[in-house]
Specification:
Strand 2 and strand 3 form a beta hairpin. The protein has one domain. The model has no long low-confidence stretch (mean pLDDT 87). With 72 residues, it is of the alpha+beta class.
Length: 72
Amino acid sequence: MKYKTGTRDDYAGERFLTFSEASEFLGIRSYSRISEMVRKGMLPAFELPDTDRLRVRKGDVLALIQLHIQKQ
């Protein structure tokens, strides 16, 4: 199965995103903001096999978006 990346992602299930994909979902310009969110405990990150980079769950990123919408 091939996934579309970033905001073009139409896969309904859970998957892990790169920090760059997560930043695109959140509408921010830099993946370093995602790193900051992880360091501050706002967004959990996971180590996956066969990669040296952390990933975040798509559901967690979407939950941040919903939380932001509810606060407005």
